[in-house]
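GAF domain-containing protein
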Amino acid sequence: MPGVIPNASHLQRLRPPDGIAFGHISHSARFIITSPRCLLADYYRPVRDASYQTSAISAEVASISATQPISETERREIREGLVATVVGLGVDDIASHRLFQLIEANPDALDSVIRLSLGEPARLDALRGTGLMEAGASAMLDGVASLAAEALNTPFAAVSLLDGDRQFLIGCNVAPPTSERWRPVGMSICMFTVASGIPFIVDDATMHPLLADHPAVISGEVGAYAGVPLFSDEDKAVGTLFSWDNRPRDWTSGQIIVLQDMADLASDKIFRRLI
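Structure:
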């Protein structure tokens, strides 16, 4: 199942913009458009064509990086546009519009910046320090995901960890086969949550410009998504607690608050904090 950096070397935990409390995002503040023109078909194409093979995706990304360099100004604009688009309509529509201008000119620009964010050394060090990426499924985090799904009254919830190439579902309320807990990071919706460092709340994924062309949305696997980043003690986002439905749904402010509280619980368990 079912995500940039302030500069080229650091990922800091992003705070809500002035006047926005992520636990109280109103319906009108969600990024919903009436006639989506998704520009990310080429963004997701390598993942589909590679049949989920991480090595093929990495090779394609390396080729992209070598042939289509992105300036520091463009990186900053992409970062600002991603954060604005994740937060929602009405927060910074100019930045969101600029993001899609840049993607239209270079469909691989967003991928390049997200990969830099996910590959940031301090973030990966925090993830490796947990020892969980290779430890297999966690019954404890399966339990957290189950509690989240029950509290939100949603069919699915999971705890994800993301390194530079892969997403691992370390906790799920409905336990999938082991092979299905792993996906290339390019197939992850959680990458937008992790790379932006802020909650990503989507009522209708088919109408969201970042997700409308995502394979999981096109297939009907994901109709709505709500994810909250999980932070290390150094404020590095290493994964998410997220919930999803295969149909659109209106996430309430109360549900978002509950999801944030459950994400704090998941982070405490991942980083072995006293509760």
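The domain at 40-270 is CATH 3.30.450.40 (Beta-Lactamase).
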